[in-house]
Amino acid sequence: MNANMNPTSTEIIVASSIGLIIAAAVHFRLKKIRDQRIVPKIKVSGAGQVVLGAETEPKKKLKHIVMAATREQRFERVTKNLKVARVFNTLVEEMKAIGLVSNDDKCTDVMVPMAHKDRSPVLLLMGGGMGAGKSTVLKDILKETFWAGAAANAVVIEADAFKESDVIYKALSSRGHHDMLQTAELVHQSSTDAASSLLVTALNEGRDVIMDGTLSWVPFVVQTITMARNVHRRRYRMGVGYKVDEDGVVTENYWEQIDEEQQQDGAKKRRPYRIELVGVVCDAYLAVIRGIRRALICRRAVRVNSQLKSHKRFAEAFSTYCQLVDNARLYSSNALEGPPKLIAWKDKEKNLLVDPDEIDCLKVVGRLNDAADSIFELYNNPHPAYETGSVWKDIVLSPTRLNIQKELKYSIQNVERSI
After folding, report:
1. Which positions fall inside the Zeta toxin domain (predicted)?
2. Domain that holds residue 30
3. 226-238, pLDDT tens digit by residue?
């Protein structure tokens, strides 16, 4: 240091270097602490296998235990308090969907069957397993020439929409994500009944209808198509549904006629429905990934085994449905980028035409193991997830995602141990 007490350039450089070293050391120390909170400490056994350290054993939180123990009482209390409100809310939602509730001052008699002078009304069946990508395909379909003009007056049937507007569902969901699955299951039957009520009302009135669902239960779908074929001559109402009597005999009667065939004059004669089917299929593990993402973002979750069953059953039933409808299309949503791909189609009485390079996806999904607990149990050999070009092999298991894989593995193990 010189006589004027000013530091020399050498002293400045030395001090700066020491400061940088200290800052770097603090940075890496904090980063190490953060990483240890996310990724468990790894130990190597004598055999060279990687094992988790004892400190990674999760501790069950008292809150989770209390929530599980009091779930039944909480659900019962909320259901009792909102039972009447739910009835009125569901009725209003049905009226909104069919067009009875409007902000316009002008009254419209929308319950009178629409006068389709130049065409038949259309029933569009959107089918595919949970997380297949039906919503994406439907958005594209609504841009087509016909639906661009008809969609505004069409009735959209979607059980999930009733579920999300259910006052009991909203009340329970607002209290946290701990009961996400159980909350969805609690209101499943009521939302399904509301959707069925709206469907039969819309068909009785001759409206264009878009029915969005998994179409995984063949008896229900077949009976619905039969009703649509005859509803221009007879009116229908909801049946008893799926019932098991004391002897174990199963009865499935989803729709029943409420009057005999009516003679209609020329002015009031209704045209029969044109029934179209649009199916969406994808590799089941992709659907599970989408389901997990939806649960995190929307807090709307389904059990994985239920999801797998919906994919398998729809894939097995698609050919049967094709024989019952006037027009059918099947899309594959396996690609991460770009729109879903049309892989099969049928028009009127013609045979189903398929893309030979892509239709195997439908066959593969039809033979999946719906009781699988992991992707390794999902299919027998050959396993599509390990084929070249698959999302699982090329993206999920990419070596460039090692840290993400470790974080995900730890999170999954942590959740599994806390159950």
Report:
1. 116-223
2. 9-56
3. 999 999 998 999 9
